[in-house]
Amino acid sequence: MSSHHRAPLKFSWNNPEFRALAYQFVVVGLAALLAYYLVSNTLHNLATRNIATGFAFLEREAGFAIGESLIEYSPSDTYARAILVGLANTLRVSAVALVLATMLGVIVGIARLSSNWLVARLASAYVELIRNVPLLLQLLIWYAVIGELLPGPKAAFHPLPGIYLSNRGMLMPSVDGPAVTGILWGLVLAAIAIFAVSRWQRARRRQTGVPARLWPIALTFVLLMPTVGWLLGGREFHLSIPHRSGFNFEGGWALSPELFALLVGLVTYTAGFIAEIVRAGVQSVSHGQWEAAQTLGLPRSRVLRLVILPQALRVIVPPTTSQYLNLVKNSSLAVAIGYPDLVSVVNTVLNQTGQAIEGVLIIMAAFMTVSLTVSLLMNWYNKRIALVER
Amino acid sequence: MSEVIVSLQKVNKWYGDFHVLQDIDLNVQRGERIVICGPSGSGKSTMIRCINRLEEHQSGRIEVNGVELIHDLKRIDAVRREVGMVFQHFNLFPHLTVLENLTLGPTGVLKKPLAEAQAVAMNYLERVRIPDQAHKYPGQLSGGQQQRVAIARSLCMSPKVMLFDEPTSALDPEMVKEVLDVMVSLAEETKMTMLCVTHEMGFARKVADRVIFMDRGEIVEENVPELFFGKPRTDRARQFLNQIVH
Amino acid sequence: MSMSTTTHTDQPVLLAPPRVRAKLATRLRQCLFQSPASAVLTILTIWLVLMLAPPLVQWLLVKASFQAPDAQACRDAGGACWAFIREKYRLILFGTYPHAEQWRPLLATALLVASIVWTAARRLAGLQIVGLWVFTIGAVATLMWGGFLGLAFVENTRWGGLPLTLILSTFGIAFAFPIGILLALGRRSRMPAIKAMCVAYIELIRGVPLISLLFMSSVMLPLFLPEGFSIDKLLRAQLAIIFFAAAYIAEIVRGGLQAIPKGQYEGAESIGLSYWQQTGKIVLPQALKVVIPPLVSTFIALFKDTSLVVIIGIFDLTQAAKAALSDPAWTGFGVEAYLFIGLIYFIFCYSISRYSRSLERNLKR
After folding, report:
1. Distance between CA atoms of C120 and A125, rounded to whole angstroms?
2. Which residue among A252, C41, C190, C294 is the one 20 to 30 A from B61 at the CA level?
């Protein structure tokens, strides 16, 4: 039973609660006055310059083309649709870059800890180089390298079958056809099913000691479900491999130089920071943990997987979250090399309609939403792996 | 001439649902030395921290030097000026020299001129027997020396009551004696009212006028030291005394 | 190796340790070929380096032209055109600052770098740091603008290049610092209204890219001002950077405040110090000492971020490269220009971070 009795609110300066209220009153009041002053100036200035307010402009026709987009778009569509295209571009680049940067970052981070001197030094050099040059400059350099140093399409680099690099971007083989969606859905369902089965197996092992063997089941799912998807999709899909045709290429999927430069820049940059985080995380696990695990007789790989990595993850996840958020925010630099991401599209809209405030609000709202979502997801994951303490 | 300088009447405190102080009644006479002991979690530290408002009690009445401790900043400041506290972990300010640690309170709060504050500080540093450390930083001193500086720091404010919250618990065994000696000489040479939470029973025997035993938030037994250690009245006190080495 | 044995004393016999220096071959084996996997990695890496290094070195140095009469000669040579940099380095480094007065931005740059290094060295007390920066900011402003003390006036639209980048980042942090401290204290306050406002500001600013803040300030600040007032383009960029940096500094200071043990607050309270006395004399001095390393890395990050002002048309180091490239006589040398600038950024940021790290190590000892 808890009993709280609050001291009666006396209107005396010495009552700490009254004092706190008074301070807050004054501060909020000043802030409100400032806001009022700024808003009234703004409205006045907007009126004198004949600039409209409100979001009605979103219904108007855009009138400008967008270089590349994930969804259907033409200049006769509305501004709203144009902005949506920009948003889709941002999300696409961020998602792909996030995955690739994580993979590269983990590899480089572990490489830095390698006992092979050459590999460790190279990884260190990579990280130092990346972290000490601004991202914008790196993007400009990549863009300039692609534009100036790569050969034209006629003499394109051909490092792997089906992949061509030239100053018009990169070409990759792609898959086409109605069955593709079926296959993709099959893969997604397989992933979910594998996850569920692994949870069930782990619980069963904890209760009965029956060891879990995941990979036969996993293999079955990965083979079975996409096949079902392919069957349901009409069995029609073909591989489109780029091949020369005249002065250019046909087929395959093209990554524009802008997108290519942006991806390479973002991935290499973020990977550099993630590598540092991974290294610090693994090093933060005290050496005593290695020693204790090894005296139990565990082989090195098991020690890494069961003892070191779970503890290292706890140190790695929070800063990695910031890096993911930074990556999403950094994708806005696309405006400097001409990739039509959200910021660059809104910038065009802003210039055409003059409605700067609404444009900026749209940008900020979009980024805040994405940031909050990523934050929430990572915080949930962080809580799951946290150590239980008194 | 004895008068009650600290009085707690039916003081209760909860941490959430946990009843940490239950109906505490305590009257401390001016110049009295009280040792408070008990198992961990019994509320002893919480009780003395309520006296200088580092913790807030939720019901009951606490009066220090005639001022009632309520939700009034002026009264809280007045009480804090008369009550000094020595912490288990010293809480010296590491970025100030020993002398600056001691003069911060008198110059900042009591508004004394710096020269006067420094003279008082050096005087107390001599009393705690480390005048030569005045210009060192706390990080350069041993634990025992740091705690003696902490005692001097509280004394520089000329308090009427000194609270000690397990002052020797964080010290290495060889340094406990030097701090206890200072506390004993403080008791013998001045008429300072002292409330001391400690496990050092030798100190209690030597110096205490009263020993108070707390368990699970209530005052279970209080007595003069000879009777408390010799003929404990309650079972809980007896059990506690058996567990500690005294 | 000497061994001294005296049989007539009770002193223990002290032997010098044997000096065993592994042969070069053994050491190489340990570093590079310790296990089969390691051997494979070494061979792969060496192969990669051998594949990439020669064409790179060829382009950078061997076929490069360090001196060329004009652009065509440079292009014909086939390698990097460093002659372009020789032509344009003053434009890139100092922007369109009048040629004869360029010693002034050079001096200003030197002053700023010296102040940064001195601050990072942590050998100064709090008030001395403030004094140093007040002096530096004043001196730099005088040098760059001129107008008195016999210096010709140079308006800030002509500033550019490296000094401008340094000014934007150092002034940015210097002015953002007090704001950041207030925000951090506000965020830890127990007064809900103040805490909410500080949290909202910090999370809002940290959730959006710097570019959007630059756009915002470039486009919206003029609207906020009453009619007749106009605000300089450079000032708009500087204000955006200040408000941006303040949010990040606030989080760093908050970390420092959290690192102060509760006992310090209690010690100060028990002597009777008021909130502002506690904060000013006890809490902040300790917290700020702890946060200087993350502050240095924030400064490095901000220094790199100032390159974004290119996008709103301010003539910083990156824009200077673009300007040099826009000369029709010299086109197509983007890679050289950007590599040159990249080198400047790299030298600057790497040196500061190395210095800061070595200071960390010295302090830990």
Report:
1. 24
2. C190
